[in-house]
Amino acid sequence: MSTGSAGRGALDGLIVLDLTAMLAGPYCTMMLADQGARVIKIEPPGGDKTRRNGPHLEGALKLEQGGFGGYFGSTNRNKESLVIDLKSDKGRALFLRLVQRADVVIENYRSGVMERLGLSYERLSEINPRLVYGALRGFGDRRSGASQYLDWPAYDPVSQAMGGIMGITGHVRHGPPTKIGPGIGDIGPAMFLAFGITAACWSVQRTGKGQFVDVGMTDSILAICERIVFQYGVGKKSPGREGNGHPLLCPFGLFQALDGYISLGVPNDNFWAKMVECMGRPEWIMQDKFSTNDLRVANSGELEELLNAWTLVRTKRQLSEIFGGHIPFGPVFEAKDIFEDEHFQIRNMLVETEQPGANEKLVIAGTPVHMSDTPGGIRKRAPLVGEHTERVLRDLGLHESEIAELRKNNVVEQR
What we know:
Blueprint: E1 2-3, E2 15-18, H1 24-34, E3 38-43, H2 70-75, E4 79-84, H3 89-101, E5 104-107, H4 113-116, H5 121-127, E6 132-137, H6 156-163, H7 184-207, E7 212-216, H8 217-224, H9 226-235, E8 252-257, E9 260-265, H10 269-279, H11 283-286, H12 293-298, H13 300-311, H14 316-323, E10 329-331, H15 335-340, H16 342-346, E11 350-353, E12 362-365, H17 389-395, H18 400-408, E13 412-413
Parallel strand pairs: 1-11, 2-3, 2-5, 3-4, 5-6, 6-7
Antiparallel strand pairs: 4-13, 8-9, 9-10, 11-12
Helix pairs in contact: 1-7, 6-8, 7-8
């Protein structure tokens, strides 16, 4: 496993004030930080409560000691921590001073919170016209369209449910829907917001004017499920649960092996011919009901049953030797398999980071974005509560006497 050492990223010099919590917002700012942005995580007094979330390595510092668990450590790497009490007048005044020097502000509060604090986009953009302001909420921001769900709180499963992904996910076509395992209802929107932020920053370079970037979690899931839109638009029929197959391609999905499962993706007749050749079943090409993709889809039940009978008596390793490199194929990996497979080591996808207080390293997922000249990546662990207070405030223009006064009045804190 690699350690956290990376080169300067493409976003080096970009200053991001990060007001986010939980998963969606921090994942977005993590993506920017991985590519070199200076992300200053502004935490409330006492620190971000998700620092409590596990798992915890033995001996690792807890929130009360300024530390964090695996949840926080994964998505807050490469960031700096500054604690500001935004509920106080002096805290808000300090934040406004920081905005003058920042390029980006990102928050994922519920609608209206920043307005109640007197820190709306409109006010911040008056202070810094070049500012890019990113907002990530369950159902978007009223500036782009105030839906009836505007004030509803939302987390990953809510967005998965209402954005359409659960509607097509389930073991059997007419059975109950199933939640996707990873927090795609958070991470998908985070990726869209990171894209929107970088696009807006490019616009600033050309126009000198910032803008408001609004991403709704539920909207993002619908965008990811784009196929259901044109399917329903054409046929006026909801696609329904897809199980482990595909409504438009066959064979395309999961099949059982002797010791687990494998995934096959056969999107065209050329791959179909290669597959049956690998299987030693060339006669299947000649069967009229399997000769084209449309016919295979129409007879998917029979074909999938035949394939399952063939794969079920072979191990994942045997199937890898038969199909690997010839057709789109992959064994279904669990976390243990990923840790043991050289691919993820070679691609720098398992990164060891320091876990303050623990004797072991915290292993977190690396970035899949590899750039030849500005590689970015994981440079440092997640911060302790308020760890970078003095450095951040000094770098952004405050004098030592001002910093001391802020400490004295409990506007900022450091552990």
